[in-house]
C-alpha cells in the first residue's frame, strides 16, 4: 500500500499557518500600512539590503514563504473540496493547488537564492 | 473521511442528497468557517507581495523606491488595510486553535488549554515586537 503524503502536507500547512499568524500582521502593518501613510518612516533601502545581504536571512525567507504557499494550497484545496463539494474534481484540485504552490516556491528560490 | 474512492464500473449507486454550493451561507458559524479557510488566499497574496518587495530590495535602490511609490498609491493602501484585517483574522483564529492541535504533557500533568493559548499569544507579541524592531530600529 502506498504511504499517505497527508501527514507531510499537514505539517507544512501547519508551519505555514504559524509563520503567517506570527509574522504577517506586523510585517504588513509596518511595511504596507503604517509606512505608506507616513505614521512611521519606511525602512531605508540600505537597512533592508544589509538585512537581506546575509544568505541565511534569504534562505530563511525562502523557507518561510514556501511554507506559506503550501499553507494556502492545502487550505484552499480543502475549502474547494469540502466547501464547494467538488468531490469529483479532487485530483484536479490537488494538482492545481500544490502545483501553484510549487511554482511559487520555485520563483521564490529563483528570486532570493540566485545572486 | 472517504476521499474520492476509485469507483468500479459496478459500484452500487448510493443515495446522495445534492448539496447546494452555498450551503454554508445559511448559518453564521458556517460562514465564519468558510471565511477562516478563505483567509489563506489573502495570506498567500501577502507572501507573494512580500517576496516581490524583498526582490526589489535585492535589485537596488531605484527598484525599491518605485515599489515604495506603488505601496503609497491610495487604492493600494486601502487594499492593504483590508488585507491586514483579514490576516489579523487568520492570526486570531489560527492561534485560538492551537490548544486543540497541541496537547502538552509534563509527566502525567496536561498543560491547560488557557496556558497554551497564552503562550501562543505571547509568542505573537514577541515576534511582532522583533519585526518592528528590525524594520524600524536604527
Could you name the key traits of this structure?
heterodimer, A: 115 residues, mainly alpha, B: 138 residues, two-stranded antiparallel sheet, 4 helices, 2 strands
Give the integer mean of the pLDDT values of chain B. Answer: 88
Low-confidence stretches of chain A: none
Element string of chain A (H = helix, E = strand): HHHH
Strand tally of chain A: 0
Number of helices of chain A: 4
Rg of chain A (C-alpha, Å): 17 Å
Largest interface: A-B, 53 and 54 residues
* SS summary, helix count of chain B: 4
- Proportion of residues in extended strands of chain B: under 5%
| Amount of beta strand of chain A | under 5%
Q: Give the overall shape of chain B, derived from the CA principal axes.
A: extended
Helix content of chain A: over 70%
Oligomer: heterodimer
How many DSSP E strands of chain B?
2
Distance between the termini of chain B: 53 Å
Explain how this protein is built.
The complex is a heterodimer of chains A (115) and B (138). Chain A is mainly α and 115 residues long. In chain A, 78% of the residues lie in helices and 0% in strands. Chain A is built from 4 helices and no strands. In chain A, helix 1 packs across helix 3 (55-83) and helix 3 (55-83) runs antiparallel to helix 4 (90-113). The longest helix of chain A is centred in the N-terminal third of the chain and has 29 residues, at 6-34. The termini of chain A are far apart. By secondary structure, chain B is mostly helical. Chain B has helices spanning 28-59, 61-72, 74-101, 113-136; strands at 105-106, 109-110. In chain B, a hairpin with a 2-residue loop joins strand 1 and strand 2. In chain B, helix 1 runs antiparallel to helix 2 (61-72). The longest helix of chain B is centred in the N-terminal third of the chain and has 32 residues, at 28-59. At the A-B interface, helix 1, helix 2, helix 3 and helix 4 of A face helix 1, helix 2, helix 3 and helix 4 of B.
